[in-house]
Every structure is written in structure tokens, then in C-alpha cells.
Amino acid sequence: MTRTVRFHELGGPEVMRLEDVDPGEPGPGEVLLRVEAIGINRAEALFRAGHYIEPVKELPARLGAEAAGVIEAVGPQVAGFAAGQAVSVVPAFSANDYGVYAERALVPAAALVHRPADVDAISGAAVWMPYVTAYGALVEVGGLRAGDTVVINAASSSVGLAAIHTALRVGAVPIAVTRTGGKRRRLVEEGAAEVIVSERDVSGRVLELTDGRGAEYVFDAVAGPGVTDLASAVAPGGTHFLYGALSGLPTPYPGFDLGMPALNLRTYTMMETTRDPQRLARAVAFVTAGLRAGAFRPIVDRVFPLEEIVAAHRHMESGTRFGKIVVTTG
């Protein structure tokens, strides 16, 4: 038996319970992981509340798709991994099938990444989801190049910060959008070329900064009614990525209201990258090179013990964090 977070009903953070559960033995393609640290993601809060793009199929349900730990046992048909190895888990599976909010958990080997010796567990649980998400959309799919401009909202989130660093890594110009001016200084320190407070005229400022052309990319975690304003600041032929829906409001298609510009509007989830072995290998190579060069690093906002998982989720939903929230098991 191992301490595992489960929820028996949909709702707020308070529905999560820490229970003793048998993790089971690894089956074909699976490993049993001793979890050391867990990366907390907005998708888990949405799944817990019943608002995620994938509904909860059965209760009680588990949570968690990102972690770092040590392999305890390997199931049949697993190649490249062995007991005793330090690894990270990247989100590459359904929340209805696996969950890593636990001291020990089964995970598919296809979701594992070897953890370098100089990357500790907290860093190993905080680095992959943000950077693979940013790389997968902007570089793998979008083809972000040196000199391009990318507008990044929810810029103080772990993915937003990774997008800033990713843009800088390829020589692009990151413009950060944040809800309040309180995070401006830190966003500039992380490399944002400009910080725009979203209460103001975001599109107008983007057009001003780009001499009227607009940004080649918008990396949008918020969606909702504001998508039309942001889309109006996309350069001809540019791409507006929608990878989240933090607004919680319906998202209109902006193309007709804007006069049918040459706009590419595209949804993206990191599963496009993590479930494709070749794309994932390229992402791992890109992120690993960035880590070795010092261009990439996990930015951890706060660390909570597993016993305080409810407080960790409440902090995530408070909107005050800057970077990643991590939960440790020991």
C-alpha cells in the first residue's frame, strides 16, 4: 500500500484525499516508479473539477502526469529502462489511466525521460512539461525562427516562462502579457523584451512594437473573448496558438470579425509531441541542450509536501504564482 491522492467527487481542491492504495505490479510497457517529486499542472485542476477536455470516466479517480523519481520495477516489453534509474515522467497518457500524485505509481515507459545526474528530483519534475509544451508548439509545429516576434500571455506561468526562454534560445523576440504590473520586473529579468498588462490595449501595443506588422506568433493560454483582440495583432500569415482556456469563457472564431485576414488559428496540446516518439526525441534533445547551455532552467514558485496537496492546488488557482508548483513525497 502507498499513499495516493484520489478524489471521489468532482469539485474544488478540497475533494482530494490522501489514501492508502495498492499501486499494483507493472504490466507490459509499464514501470513502477518511486515518486520523489510531482509537477502540478492546471490541467489536473480542470480534470478534478470536471472541466477538462477529457471527462472523468470513473470515480474514485487519480491525478498527476508529471513527476520525477526512481524506477523500482520494470514490466514486460520495456526497453531502455531498468530498476534503479532516475527518470522524469512527461504528460503522455490519459488522466483516466494513470496518476502520479502518489509515493509510488505505475506509469507507461513511453512517458519516461532519463534524468541527467545533475538534475535533482524537484527540477526533474518541473522542467519537462513547460519546455516541451513551448518547444512543441512554437518550434516543432510553428517553425519559430530568429527575428520572429511571439506574444505570450499568462507569461508568469511555468509554460509562459519556458516560452520566453525558448524564444530567446532561437533568437526570437518574446513579448509577455500579464494581468497586473506586479510581475513586470521579474518577467523582464527572465528575458521578456516587453511586458504588456492585459488590462490595457494589448493588440495596439503589439502593433506599435512591431511597426504595425504584428507578431508572427501568439501563444495563448487564456482564450475566451479576448482571442479576437489578440488575433488582430497577428502578422499576415502568422499563427495564433490556443493551448489553454484559462478564461473559462466561450472562444469565438475571430477571422470573420477581423475581415478574414491571413490568420492561422490552431489549437495545441503537448500530447502532440509526447505521444509521437520522434517528436518527443527532438523535444528532449532541444530541452537537454538548453539545460546544458544554461539557457533553460525550471523556475519553481513553491514546494509543498504531499500532505498539503489541497493547499498546493489552492495556491495554483490563486493566480499569484510565478513559475512551477512542485509537491514532494518525502
UniProtKB/TrEMBL annotation:
Annotated keywords: NADP, Oxidoreductase
The name this protein goes by in its record: NADPH:quinone reductase-like Zn-dependent oxidoreductase
Gene Ontology molecular functions: NADPH binding; oxidoreductase activity, acting on NAD(P)H
Entries under CDD domains matching the protein: MDR2
Enoyl reductase (ER) domain span: 11-327
Annotated InterPro entries: ADH-like_N (IPR013154), ER (IPR020843), GroES-like_sf (IPR011032), NAD(P)-bd_dom_sf (IPR036291)
Organism: Nonomuraea endophytica
Pfam families assigned to the protein according to its UniProt record, in alphabetical order: ADH_N (PF08240), ADH_zinc_N_2 (PF13602)
Keyword NADP recorded: yes
SUPFAM superfamilies: GroES-like, NAD(P)-binding Rossmann-fold domains
Coiled-coil regions listed: none
